[in-house]
């Protein structure tokens, strides 16, 4: 009996399930030493029912192990691919490579790009050669496109004057401002931007250090993070900041009303007239004393909210050769932004620090629209709104806190909306 040599030395015979994308399924017998390429050829012969007339058919198909979803390497054997008896294989067609674009398509795309290309200077001059020239005032055009941050400062200056007048007319004005002054002390001590604090604590900084860094750096996350990194080995980093003056001490510092002696009665005047004069004189003295007390409270509020330049920016700019006063003015004009302050110092230095104290034209449509807004009108009678305006005027970085405040936030939102609406029109 004659037996083929390959049958004598053949390895273990496995039966594998083969499936196609069309749903055809059959069992294929294969030995362990058969290559994946031979197995794929056998599968294709069974699939196409005969010989492979097109040699590309073999290269356009691949076998995939269904359980592990991996493509079988054609140069390896069944044993090397670790195929087992009754494993399931997928015979699928490879995706054809993308056909290269035709020359006609390339030319059409280039033509489309040329059509959509912006005109160059020569094309513009050629197209506008026959148009009459007009002298346009570019200064006016640029002035109309106003920046909100620049205009906001002018708006705040004018609104502070209005708020002071409204609050001074209140019979309880002195008590209101004493309460506001106490609120200011409490805010300075307790108010911390929760969002900024969360960002620093999520970076791994202790909460007490993060709070201290934020207070020292006007609630700026970037500057507070730099401060924390610089003072990580400082033994005094956890030392609490010195306490603020208590509201009671601030109230005690206020001057007491000075009694004004009543004028001596003139001969021949009736007691009624004398009494009326005495009452008017007493009322005038009380009003004068109240105004003096309000003035002192306003001064204390302004001193607490005065501009505080960034110490690192001051040092960096002074090292460039600028005087300290010039540096402080530059940082005040540019909201403590070091790069912008440097450009201001090297440029024409406009606007000047004096320009910052100028308010908006009170007869302008923008200011009139702001004053006519009911939310703004109500907010101007709240001492906290005046404090917010004062704070944002000298420390613009604190504006985010006041925007998130339930009492002052709606007022700032209305001012922003009115500005954006009128600026577009």
Describe this entry's structure for a reader.
It is elongated and about 130 Å long. It is built from 21 helices and five strands. It has a five-stranded mixed β-sheet with strand order 2-1-5-3-4. The protein has helices spanning 5-8, 36-48, 56-59, 103-116, 121-127, 138-144, 148-168, 173-190, 194-202, 207-216, 221-230, 247-253, 271-304, 311-318, 324-333, 338-346, 365-372, 374-380, 383-394, 399-403, 409-424, and strands spanning 13-20, 25-31, 61-65, 70-71, 88-93. 55% of the residues lie in helices and 7% in strands. The longest helix is centred in the last third of the chain and has 34 residues, at 271-304. By secondary structure, the protein is α+β, with helices and mostly antiparallel strands.
What's the end-to-end separation, in Å?
A: 105 Å
Rg over CA atoms: 42 Å
In DSSP terms (H or I, runs of 4 or more residues), the helix count works out at 21
Shape: elongated
Helix content: 40-55%
Unreliable residue runs: 138-146, 244-258
The proportion of residues in beta strands is 5-15%
Total strands? 5
Arithmetic mean of pLDDT: 75
> In this structure, how is the largest beta sheet organized?
5 strands, mixed
The sequence of SSEs as H and E is HEEHHEEEHHHHHHHHHHHHHHHHHH
**Order of strands, widest sheet:** 2-1-5-3-4
Query: Which structural class matches the secondary elements?
Result: alpha+beta
List keywords for this structure.
elongated, 55% helix, 21 helices, 7% strand, alpha+beta, five-stranded mixed sheet, 425 residues
Question: What's the short story on this structure?
Answer:
By secondary structure, the protein is an alpha+beta fold.
């Amino acid at each position: 009996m004659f037996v083929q040599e390959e049958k004598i030395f053949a390895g273990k015979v496995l039966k594998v399930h083969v499936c196609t994308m069309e749903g055809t399924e059959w069992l294929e017998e294969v030995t362990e030493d058969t290559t994946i390429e031979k197995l794929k050829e056998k599968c294709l012969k069974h699939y196409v029912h005969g010989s492979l007339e097109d040699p590309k058919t073999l290269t356009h198909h691949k076998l995939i192990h269904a359980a592990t979803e991996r493509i079988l390497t054609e140069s390896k054997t069944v044993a090397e691919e670790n195929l087992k008896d009754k494993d399931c294989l997928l015979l699928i067609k490879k995706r054809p490579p993308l056909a290269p674009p035709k020359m006609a398509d390339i030319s059409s795309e280039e033509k489309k790009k040329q059509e959509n290309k912006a005109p160059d200077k020569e094309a513009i001059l050629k197209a506008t050669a026959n148009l009459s020239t007009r002298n346009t005032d570019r200064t006016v055009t640029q002035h109309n496109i106003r920046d909100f941050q620049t205009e906001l400062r002018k708006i705040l200056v004018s609104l502070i004057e209005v708020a002071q007048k409204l609050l001074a007319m209140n019979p309880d004005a002195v008590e209101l401002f004493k309460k506001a002054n106490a609120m200011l002390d409490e805010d300075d001590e307790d108010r911390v931007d929760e969002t900024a604090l969360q960002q620093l604590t999520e970076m791994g900084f202790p909460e007490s250090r993060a709070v201290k860094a934020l207070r020292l750096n006007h609630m700026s996350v970037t500057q507070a993070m730099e401060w924390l990194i610089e003072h990580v080995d400082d033994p005094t980093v956890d030392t609490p900041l010195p306490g603020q003056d208590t509201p009671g001490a601030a109230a005690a510092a206020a001057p007491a009303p000075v009694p004004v002696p009543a004028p001596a009665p003139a001969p021949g005047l009736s007691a009624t007239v004398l009494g009326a004069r005495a009452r008017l004189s007493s009322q005038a003295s009380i009003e004068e004393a109240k105004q003096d007390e309000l003035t002192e409270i306003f001064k204390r509020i302004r001193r607490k909210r005065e501009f505080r330049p960034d110490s690192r920016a001051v040092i960096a700019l002074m090292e460039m050769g600028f005087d300290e006063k010039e540096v402080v003015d530059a940082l005040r004009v540019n909201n403590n932004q070091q790069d912008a302050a440097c450009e201001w110092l090297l440029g024409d230095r406009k606007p000047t620090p004096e320009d910052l104290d100028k308010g908006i034209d009170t007869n302008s449509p923008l200011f009139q629209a702001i004053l006519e807004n009911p939310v703004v009108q109500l907010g101007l009678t709240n001492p906290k709104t005046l404090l917010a305006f004062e704070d944002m005027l000298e420390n613009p970085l604190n504006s985010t806190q006041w925007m998130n405040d339930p009492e002052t936030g709606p007022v700032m939102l209305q001012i922003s909306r009115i500005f954006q609406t009128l600026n577009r029109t």
